[in-house]
Design brief:
single chain, 91 residues, mainly alpha
């Protein structure tokens, strides 16, 4: 992880316990149900990326005002501009 990739709340005992439960549970399930299976072939170990993504989604980084402004500006600039109401339309 790099600085800023997680919310400040991820720096807590609760987050550490959740991380331990998620990965420890995944590993325990894999070892208990398919002890000789490779990581790539395991029915539980294949879920590692998904489990990590779900953990990370619980602690998304806070959006900085600069990031929000840039994203909003980019979204607006990609949309077509509305026509002026003073432009006459053909009848």
């Amino acid at each position: 992880m790099r600085l800023g990739q997680l919310a400040p709340a991820a720096d807590s005992d609760v987050a550490v316990r959740l991380w331990t439960v998620v990965l420890g549970g995944l590993i325990s399930q894999q070892l208990a149900n398919q002890p000789g299976t490779s990581f790539a072939d395991g029915v539980f170990s294949r879920l590692t990326d998904t489990a990590i993504d779900q953990f990370l989604s619980a602690y998304p980084p806070e959006e900085s005002p600069c990031r929000h402004w840039t994203a909003t500006r980019s979204a607006r600039s990609s949309q077509p501009r509305p026509r002026s109401s003073t432009t006459s339309s053909p009848t």
